[in-house]
Amino acid sequence: MTEKKFIFVLPPEHVRHFGKTLQVLTKLGEEIYIELSNKTNGLSFRTANQSRSSYSCITFKREFFEEWPQDDIQREKIKCRISAKRCMSAVHAVLSSKLTRLELVFDDHKSNLSFILHCRYNIVKVHSCFYIDCEKLQARFDKQSYKNSVSIMSKTLQELTAHFPAKWDEITIRATKDQFIIKKCDEIVHDDDSVVYSMNFQVVCEPREFINYDIQYNSDITFCLREFKFLLGLADLLNLPMTLLFDSRGRPIIFCFDAEEFYFDGIFVFATIANREGETDPSFTASQPSINDISTMDEDDLVSYRQYTINTTGLNRGGKKRPAPSSSPLQTTTNLSDINNDHTSIINPKQR
């Protein structure tokens, strides 16, 4: 970027939406990647968690802002990242104050992003975050390749999962043409290496409770509950249709929404648990074609956020639950100067 300032101004009616969505991102990752997107003509905020098992992106369109920098910004580059921890104080101030105006000021000379809060009685507060120029953060997935798609109001989804305590590590979604089940299972490993699942809790829904319900493959997938709960925090603010895309184990589950009336959209990608070595996916019957035959499967590099091991070093003796590994096999690269399409490549390949 050349040495200049870029100023984005938000009207008071959009301040809370901006603060709430940014608050969700600060909980999902340690760094927030910011980019001016010429393709969508908007300002994008992205993050991925430390283990690179989840990816989130929210794009605020040009109409979301009351004032937008001059057209020459399209020839400039805004690609930077800020600390989510430093950003939290600014987000808290935005949500706790009654603002008449909010300004985002990118100062290229000082490498500084300022949140300028205009409050009542002409009180002005400034929160600043140092930023670092960086490459684009993207995730590799293909929404068109997914065989299962359901849409449901976000608050309905929140109500369905409200009974699941946040302290639980993960939840499982089992979808068939006739039922959609959200459940919690505990995995018990016995001394003879056998695995037993004990049912704790489940919620059963019928297709008529969904806006759209298109299940082509019976699916049984498990993913992290904690990050999913953060996503549902947006349901308190927005009651919009949420679309879920998923199919087999090991492929990521995608949650996306488009708040057209508020001029922003979001996409959240969470890794799911893959099969153990030698185990077949119970999601599919022998009469169904294998998902692995789909050519686009190799394009999905966001894989399970934990891998099971069958040797004794991965077992917890005495019939106890097998703990999740402390690290993920996923790796991330942000050197994507040769990638042109949004959401097409960050999270590195499947562990073989």
UniProtKB/TrEMBL annotation:
InterPro entries according to UniProt: DNA_clamp_sf (IPR046938), Rad9/Ddc1 (IPR007268)
GO cellular component: checkpoint clamp complex
Pfam families reported for this sequence: Rad9
Location of the region described as Disordered in the Swiss-Prot/TrEMBL record: 314-352
Compositionally biased spans, kind Polar residues: 325-352
GO biological process terms held by the UniProt record: cellular response to ionizing radiation; DNA repair; DNA replication checkpoint signaling; mitotic intra-S DNA damage checkpoint signaling
Domain of life: Eukaryota
PANTHER family in UniProt: CELL CYCLE CHECKPOINT CONTROL PROTEIN, DNA REPAIR PROTEIN RAD9
Protein name: Cell cycle checkpoint control protein
